[in-house]
Amino acid sequence: MIEKALIAFLAILVCLLSALIIIRWRRTRGSILLNEEAINELVMAIVSNIRAGKIQDIAGRVSSILSRFLECDKIIFLRYHKTYLELNYNFGIEQLKQEEFRIRLTAELQVRLKSFHRISSINELESLLSSDYLGRLKQLGLSYFFHVYLRENFYGLYFIQTRLLPENPTLQFLATALAFNLSAAYHIGIQEQQLKKYEDRVKN
Q1: CB-based contact 88:77 (threshold 8 Å)
Q2: Helix, strand or coil for residue 149?
């Protein structure tokens, strides 16, 4: 019962924040140019989150929208796992070695990453990442990053190559909406696991 109530609450939260995103688009649609297919994909990603919240499905839609509508030819996603950011997904790049893209998520790095509220250049991370690591990203053409987090919970980091400029309002809008939707899915999944563990302990 508690689990259903929490999931319902989080689903309502997703709807409310998604509505705010759509309102923002309407107010700025003179500069944010989206075709109907892109809007439909975004809406379907949100609906998928509300109905099932399967991480793989939602993450797949993120990658699809990035590549199809935001001209992202290369994408890698580092997922947070046990104090590390580890390679979880890549698009447009072959033969990546997972160990070469593993980052320890220190408190300093997490605070710094959370300070960015939009897609930013990887050069902003020069003081926090090694020159070798930044060099690998640049060699692959991955010039920009944006994070996936909700409140105090950090879930992952995207590095992308795109022909759009980082100041492009369409890029910023869609990336923000996608990152929020994915972070909400992660948050719901973790809450479900915690509630299940609690209920199992109560039963035993």
Answers
A1: yes
A2: strand
Give the model's pLDDT for residue 133. 95
Strand runs labelled E in the chain:
72-81, 84-91, 103-104, 120-121, 144-150, 153-162
How far apart CA 121 and CA 115 sit, in angstroms, is 13
- Work out the burial of residue 91: count CB atoms within 10 Å of its CB; fewer than 13 is exposed, 13-18 middle, 19 or more buried: middle
Nearest to 183 by CA among 62, 96, 43, 37: 62
Angle formed at CA 148 by CA 142 and CA 41, multiple of 5 degrees: 85
> What residues does 81 pair with on adjacent strands?
84
For every residue of 73-110, DSSP letters joined together read EEEEEEEEETTEEEEEEEES--S--GGGG-EE--HHHH
* Helix 55-69 and helix 36-51, axial crossing angle in degrees, nearest 10: 170
The type of residue at 34 is L
Q: What is the pTM of this model?
A: 0.77
Per residue in 25-43, pLDDT (tens digit) is 555 554 545 566 666 666 6
Q: CA 35, CA 92: separation in Å to the nearest integer?
A: 24
150 or 195: which leads in pLDDT: 150
